[in-house]
Amino acid sequence: MHAKGCSLLLSDVHLSTEAPEITRRFFKFLHSQTSHCQALFILGDLFELWIGDDAPGTLGLEVAVELRQLAGNGISLFFMHGNRDFLIGPDYAAQAGMQLLEDPCIVYFNQQPVLLSHGDAWCTDDVEYQAFRSHRLKPEVRQAFLAQSEAERVAFAKNARDASRQHTQNSAAGIMDVNQAVIQEVFAGSGVDTIIHGHTHRPADHTYHDVRQRLVLGDWYSQASWLEIDTDGIHRHGGVI
Fold first, then answer.
1. What interhelical angle do 139-146 and 150-170 show, nearest 10?
2. Of 216, 214, 218, whose CA–CA distance to 194 is shortest?
């Protein structure tokens, strides 16, 4: 896949009815920062919770309208699943004007290959999370969850979120980050010199042997955070908007 012109990349917005300030910040970003770009890549966790395309809620519908407007203005929208919104399916993607991406995938920016991922698959030191991740990715698990009532799904998703937060608080900081040996394997196996991902909420630019780089996207809890790729290279942006 080749991206033309200017592209913006972000992740971990974590939109929620419980945090209207994040929604305001995200919508302001869409209105004020995207007019010059040709593509927007959302690398997972756009929403704090997603219980199925059949139950987007008022917030999901509002977001779809905003994103669809961007698509109508000629901006290509791409979405990659995160660990919080992995149930977003083709119905909602079509409603929002987004194209779903596999995780990971290689996109060519200015003829240079870049590997994009949400990043949670590389946090292999967190054995408990990886076991849960493998479980939720099973088709039969998804089907069983989506067969429940909306109320049951909401209750389960909130309990899972609370358990995840507790697990993060009780775990050593190191196991919540990507495993460096895994990253080296990803570089070697993909043949790229640049990786961009989110999930860890630890925005930083990491270099390897002065050639390869791993760029980590930030979350949106307190401020906006995104990368811009144009003919001059990759630029990090963020702050209060």
1. 130
2. 214
Amino acid at residue number 118: H
pTM of the model: 0.95
Q: Which residues pair with 237 in a beta bridge?
A: 226
pLDDT digits (tens, 9 = 90+) for 79-124: 999 999 999 999 999 999 999 999 999 999 999 999 999 999 999 9
**Domain edges within the chain:** 2-239
DSSP 48: S
Burial (Cβ within 10 Å: 0-12, 13-18, ≥19) of residue 114:
buried
Structure tokens of 132? 């849960």
Cα–Cα dist 241/226, whole Å: 12
Main-chain dihedrals φ then ψ at residue 139, nearest 5 degrees: -55, -40
Question: Pseudo-torsion of CA 178, 180, 185, 187, nearest 10°?
Answer: 80
Which superfamily, per CATH, for 2-239? Metallo-dependent phosphatases (3.60.21.10)
> Which residue, chain included where needed, has tokens 């630890």?
202
The CA distance from 206 to 216, in Å, is 8
